[in-house]
Input
Amino acid sequence: AFKAAVLIQQWYRRHVARLEMRRRCTWRIFQSIEYACEQDQIKLHNFFSYLMDHFTPSSSKERDFISRMFVSGESVKEAELEKYCDYESIEVPDSYTGPHLSFPLLPDHATALLEAFKQKQQLHARYVLNLLHETRKHLKQLPNISHVSTCYSEEVTVCGDLHGQLDDLFLIFYKNGLPSPSKSYVFNGDFVDRGKQSLEILIVLFTFLLIYPKEVHLNRGNHEDHMVNLRYGFTKEVMQKYKVHGKKILKMIQNVFCWLPLATLIDQKVLVIHGGISDTTDLDMLETIQRHKFISVLRGKKRKESNRNAEVQEINGESKAEAEPAGKEADPGLCPPPRAAQAPSMANRQEFSRWVRQTVQEQIERCRRLVDVSESESEELTYSSSVSLADLDGPCWTRQEEWKQILDILWSDPMPQEGCRVNTVRGGGCYFGPDVTGKVLEKHSLQFLIRSHECKQEGYEFCHGRKVLTIFSASNYYEIGSNRGAYVKLGPDLVPHFVQYQANKTAHTLTMTQRQISRVEESAFRALREKLFAHTSALISAFKAYDKDNTGRITLSSWATAVESVLRLGLPWRMLRPQLVRSTAEGMLEYRSWLDDLAVEQRSQEHIQSSLLEVIYRNRSNLETIFRIIDRDHSGLISFEEFHQTWKLFSSHMNIELTDDGISDLVRSIDFNKDGNIDFNEFLEAFRLVRQAE
Output
């Protein structure tokens, strides 16, 4: 009996170890694909930024058009925004049966909204715009770092990413209670994208924010960014739900996002930020940054400042070589003391005059940067953009440094190793180690850090010696049963208490193995096979490098190395191989037949030529994002003018000389239904036709 018990125990331990290995592999697949997609988004944005930097408009009209297309809303004037989003001019018809809002809001309004959204009703566009208008007015009065105290409420509840999953928010309120004077909430960013009810979540959170401004606190996340929304679904969701007034709603939301606070401090001891920190994170700097200037955190300010500097040098008659010493990069945003350069001799009047103009212009530009006012922005000083004389004596940072501060707290992730390095996996922010955490906590007299930004299987996770807590509130994020959601409650003792849940009813009917492994694993490998198929051509080239004799066969070790060299997902391919490669002969893989099997699997879903399907799988997300960037009014259609100007941008980058008539012929050929616009299907079809022609 004793031997039998030992054998059963050994068998059970091996079984549990295998399940845990499969679970971890499945998790790695999901996260690697998710982060690779985020990296693609940043690369795509950097590509457009590069085009903008190197494109020379031929006319002021062209310059204005390109600026409106790619530099969305960076200096929208208050009056212009209110006029554009005038909610009072929108009538609510008598046939409307949804909830009604009147301001100031009362708790009954919030209850009515929750009930309406449970019944799948939609709030009228007038009320949405009115709510956004009032929310923006409130947010403008808030500091960059909100302060919460447990002295005035029994406890503070911190929620992580919701990502458009309204059922999770309903469940949190059901379990924990609605916001009230005795129940404070901190929602730590990433309210939108991926899920299908992002707008409803915003409406609910903004409503409670206005009803209980001292008890409800919202932090900005990396998805509260209109450039990210173009790719991950929120822009599309708004336009589908509000076809008439969707553009106005998006414009207002875009502006509201940039006014969201950046962090929250609980009892001056617990810092709540969305992503993380870096070795340069400085709360004093974060408190003084004009956060509303950063409409999109993906778009840094360096380009704008360098352009402004170039204009100053142009006025002064300087060349770039004269203005910047060799081997040293100019720092246009810094506020140094006036240069002690010696004035040229009065004998050379022309040179002396130029030196005076240069010195005066530099000082004027320096002062403008100090108060962050350009000529075009000088008439729109608001509460947050005004600078008192006392502020002028304080420290001065460059816009690039300020941008990096925000980028780091929204995009960074912790790592177990010491130090701080660039987050190459996501493409933005950094990885910070326990030593960095310790220094920041010690510098600001903090006990620990709460952040979100990463999906965790149990909904929360400690790291860095329990000094960093990750909280994630979107359950079933990758697949039904993939993870729990969680929120954390802090009382006056600041000891965290966790509540976990799964909002989807189907998840509760699954067995433990189904929930943890089978169903989720199947979904992960399906996504991975799509990724492999999308890179068929590159994989063949990589396999051929190991197939010197052109036998069509390679070793499994070479297969694993070649796949990682192409996909760069950092996955344990040798461990995943049994799920991806079904048949091998003598430890060798016939790679062409393996790729053919992948193609058959994908073609069974879409009846398209294999080579074309590969290209579309690989580029569809980027193509859709490009389409939405060009489609400035979010109408779902690209006008001939939008296409014309965008093509001029591309052709200047690719050194293709094309006349205006040539571009007009091109756009007419893409407009298959001849309605004067290009929809996404025509855009995609044209892309496929180009590939066929190749």
User: Anything to note?
Assistant: The chain has four domains: 1-69, 72-300+397-501, 520-602, 608-690. The chain is about 50% helix and 10% strand. The CA atoms of residues 324 and 330 lie 6 Å apart.
